[in-house]
# Entry
Amino acid sequence: MTDFPPDPVIVAGLRSGDEEVFALLLDEWSRGMLRLARSYVSTAASAEEVVQDTWLAVIRAVGTFEGRSSLRTWVYRILVNTARRRGERESRTIPVSSVDGERPDGVPPERAEGGPEGAALAGEVRALIDKAVGTLPSRQRAVITLRDMEGYGSEEVCEILSISPANQRVLLHRARAAVRDHLAAYYDGRGGP
# Structure
């Protein structure tokens, strides 16, 4: 991401309908957006729709972007609001599946490095982590997804989710502790995938 243009260049490109700028954003941000959306909704297909709806909203509203936050934070706020609404609607109409066996980022475990054994182990660990994260309350899921899976800083997570730094720290601590407990229970033989 060293060649990634600054926000003013991206915003100008989006406002002028520059397809290359939009494609660059899609390539850079969509995977992380999909992962975060998946923490709010019940299926991967629903998460994909949330991401699509978010991009449509961004294109429609980019003219109103004032630059009070980074463009990425603004886009992720739109995503979170869209995903929350979709998740609430889904919870009223269909049961949310706790684990469906799919990876939120859509990358098959066999693509992991280290040959078949490494891929199997990486896939197993990833599935355990995904399962543990999937059992967390939505706010904890969102914080751990942004911080630990997507690498966002705490200030940006607070801004995206509209939470205080103290709340973000508590949610992240609880989420990490729950994931650690889930992994420890599995490896101690008390649980399974």
